[in-house]
């Protein structure tokens, strides 16, 4: 089985989105393994490897109990399950966190391209990259995940073996 080996760097920091809010972000960020340069969500280097960075849709609104569990800490594996009978989206892909239950969905625009691959039997995996909170002491308000066309994902912190 193929493993996606992804270079990352752990960080905890405040982030200031364009809407003027302040968000605490903790977890992993993909980096260029040779230079350590941060790779943005749509970086060609990620795209070339088939890697997708996306938020977990609906986590805070519909699955807060799982969102607050230890099962979704940065680096935790996630399970992707097709939900073709979903009345809102025939391409729906549910995201589960270990034995804790469903934490949300793959965003609609990502699911549209990923669902046919899953339906064709291709294997994809996911892992929690980072969490969002209003401050380090507040409950989680969201998650960012990394998806890969592989049986599993190994996050390798840059500079560590």
Structural commentary:
The chain is of the alpha+beta class and 161 residues long. The chain has one domain (3-157): 2-Layer Sandwich (Alpha-Beta Plaits), CATH 3.30.70. It is built from four helices and nine strands, in the order E-E-H-E-H-H-E-E-E-H-E-E-E. The protein has helices spanning 44-48, 59-62, 64-67, 108-119, and strands at residues 3-15, 23-30, 52-55, 77-82, 93-97, 101-105, 125-133, 140-148, 152-157. Strands 1, 2, 3, 4, 5, 6, 7, 8 and 9 form a nine-stranded mixed sheet that branches. The mean pLDDT is 94.
Look up the CATH topology: Alpha-Beta Plaits
Give the terminus-to-terminus CA distance: 21 Å
CATH architecture descriptor: 2-Layer Sandwich
The helicity comes to 10-25%
Beta-strand percentage? Answer: 35-45%
* CATH class category name: Alpha Beta
Per DSSP E runs of 2 or more residues, the count of β-strands stands at 9
User: Major sheet, described briefly?
Assistant: 9 strands, mixed
Specify the structural class.
Answer: alpha+beta
Following the backbone from N to C, one meets helices and strands in this order, namely EEHEHHEEEHEEE
| Tally of contiguous helical segments | 4
Unreliable residue runs: none
**Residue-averaged pLDDT, rounded?**
94
As for the number of domains, it is: 1
The global form is globular
Our Rg estimate from Cα atoms comes to 15 Å
């Amino acid at each position: 089985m193929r493993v996606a080996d992804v270079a990352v760097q752990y960080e905890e920091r405040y982030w200031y989105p364009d809407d003027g809010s302040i968000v605490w972000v903790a977890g992993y960020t993909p980096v260029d393994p040779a230079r350590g340069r941060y790779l943005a969500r749509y970086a060609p280097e990620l795209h070339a490897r088939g890697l997708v960075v996306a938020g977990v849709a609906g986590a805070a609104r519909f699955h807060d109990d799982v969102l607050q569990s230890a099962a979704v800490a940065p680096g935790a594996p996630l399970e992707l399950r097709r939900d073709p009978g979903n009345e809102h989206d025939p391409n729906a892909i549910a995201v589960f966190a270990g034995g804790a239950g469903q934490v949300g969905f793959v965003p609609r625009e990502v699911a549209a391209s990923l669902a046919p691959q899953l339906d064709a039997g291709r294997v994809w995996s996911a892992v929690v990259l980072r969490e969002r909170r209003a401050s380090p002491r507040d409950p989680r308000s969201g998650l960012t995940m990394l998806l890969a066309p592989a049986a599993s994902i190994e996050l390798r912190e840059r500079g560590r073996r």
